[in-house]
Amino acid sequence: MNKEQLWFSDFRNTLPLTTKEEKSLIQYVTVALGQQQKKVKLTNNLQEDRQPRLVFLSLSDGQKTASVIFGSGRGITKAIEEAISQIPRQLQNIKWIKLDIVQSVFSLSRLNLKRPLYKQRSLYGLAFDRESQIAFLPEELLTNNLLNTDLNIRPQNIIKYLGNDSEKAQAYQRILDSDRIQIYRFTTTSLFSENNQSISLYRGHRLFDKLEREQLLAAAFDGGEYLTRAIEPNGKFVYIYQPKTNNVPNKYNILRHSGTIYSLLELYEITQNKQFLVTAETAIAFLLQTFHPYETPQGKVKCVVEDGFVKLGGNALAAIALSKYTQVTKSQEYLAIIQELATWMASVQNETGEFVVHKQSYPEGKVRSFLSEYYPGEAILAMLRLYQLDSQDRWLDVAANAAKFLIEVRDRGLPDSKLPHDHWLLYGLNELYRHRPEQLYLNHSLRLAHAIADKQNVNPSYPDWQGSYYQPPRSTPTATRSEGLYAAYQLAKFVGKDEDAKTFLAAMKRGIKFQLQTQFQAESVLYLPNPRRAIGGFHRSLTNFEIRIDYIQHNISSLLGLYQII
Fold it and tell me: Is the pLDDT of residue 512 over 90?
């Protein structure tokens, strides 16, 4: 420990840093740790700094949770050197290095810890009094739930996180027993290094100023690799993974299973990487086990059944996935099954074009009142994909009638701001227009895509919300809208609506930049209990780390869409 015991109460001034200086500081650390041989020349600003400085080093071998080491000193180089001197000898084979430099400190005095802190736990660190020597980075607070979503401190979680450090555990107990509690809230400049490549971080992840084509494919590839690791021998995916606790809840959803197959086949189509095809085939084998016979006026057909129910979306997504498999492999193995799935969907469409059954008990056939905004769009796309395989006009008729119902009945009279942001419908309208070029389909596609672009966060409160939807934003709603914008872009280009296409492409790029922030990479898995397992997965939001297969599915599909048009 530093003899002076500099602490957050000693902090005085922010250390102004240029981008070049930030890079030189993280390189300074990597040289000191033997990660690179080249000497680093620091600017006079850094060499001559003598202000009280506080830093954190987070170090990992790429397999285990990062060790966090605190250092302080008069001058940034002294603080870094102090932190390095505290690194335990047993910490070997360091691969990931993160440097946090404290840049602002806010002092709070409390009678107790029951009042919330009123600042985002993912942007502010938390320290207690000097005697305790307890301080947590924002990422530690978030990953270990040391603050809950209401921003209340969670004492039991802190005690658990302090673990075997009995000295700090006793210090924290003393804090809990105190009449008045000293708290410091702080911000940092965060820098990360892997393989001598350094990046700046915000909220524990990188920001994306520009997009490169190969970068998009690499991100989609990493998502696909996560899914190949998440497939079980029986063909089920690890549906939900909770990286904070390394737990897998006992839940499943066959619709999202089918959608995930589809995205893997899209990835295989572009990369021709066999692992994605093999994973998709393994998942298809499980999907086939959910098919059961069902009587319709057209005869006995097959339906997807899960938990005693047939769903319009279940049949539609299964048909979309198997149609994609048929297209990319040229195999006719599943064509008859796809036709049976489509026959059931056609049987629940009335004369107005509405699908009147969205959920039905099996085998009793009792229709539930449940309605999904997205199932009809999925069914439309399923019909169009089947039409591309067998050229039977009846599937086109079903798709066209359904599209007209959605446009002329369901969405009639709605202001643009109230239109359902239905990416499946946009996929369907793009393809339907190619076969039946009616102005109705084009107009609605353009209207819906503009409605989506108009709802995008373009001047948000936080820089990493840019390009997203809702506040606070989530990954998958952004990804699905990017998919819809991709389909609308294709249609706009097809009919020569270049200005519309330009608007949709710009919105799609903004959305993808946001989405990439929600993909686990080395810098964002540092504090997880099983870092490697999460890499490549897309998490629910910037602050919710849950990974679910459909989060990855929609991100892969939208990434590949943009990859194909830039």
Answer: yes
